[in-house]
Amino acid sequence: MKKYLSVGEAAKAVQTTSETLRHYDRIGLVKPSKKDEWTNYRYYTEQDIVRLNTVRALQLMDLPLQEIKKVLEYDDLEKIIDFLAQAEKKADEKISALQYSKSKIQLAKADYERKLQTQQKFNGTFLKDYPERVILLSDTLEKPTLDNLWNYLGHFYDKVTPALKEQFSFEDLAGIYTENGITRLFAVCIRYADIDGLKVLPKGKYLCANCSEENREQMLRELIHIAQTKYGVEPTFTVQLIVVSGILQWNYEVQVLVDR
Length: 260
Hints:
By secondary structure, the protein is of the alpha+beta class. The chain has helices at 7-13, 18-26, 46-59, 65-72, 77-121, 146-150, 152-159, 216-230, and strands spanning 5-6, 34-35, 42-44, 125-130, 133-137, 169-170, 174-179, 182-191, 198-201, 204-211, 237-246, 249-259.
């Protein structure tokens, strides 16, 4: 005896709503194998469920219902098989694209988790050893904005004459350098040639702290005060590395040299 499913049971089986199945019936896409003439209740067979699952899968391929209906009404079984084979191929391509996107999301998530762990670990001031760093100062940029951070390193490559561009490369980070009351954005050089605007940040221990734009100036004053009172040094410059902490957001790691 053939087993029948109610519209609610069929909807649950294909993970959709009863109203969706009623809509399929109204447009002639998937009609139930049995309909009670007195109650108008719809009843579906296992074969109906196969057809419903096929429709739902094709919808995920962004095919409109009218096109799906047209395909399923083919009289030629070979045409249906060929169409479904092409749909299967597109599904595989979509899965591959989603898996690639997922891998990129996982990498980004891991990166933000590392940054969060670093922020939690360094809650307050801390000492950090830095090697000698060569930076290239901007002639015009004084503070970070959405516009100048969008293509940050492009600004510094433009500063270099065409003949020397191949001799320069930069780390993928941004920073603010302040000395004698003058503040400029900078890029950290990986390779460089001797041009105006280069500055050497000495190797040594730097007193550091993480902060936001709101408390950046206050944190710098605190670091300078600690350097003066605890380490007995008078900082001649300060460094503020820009740490991207979210989409279109950034924080800072402020640094003051206390021991070479």
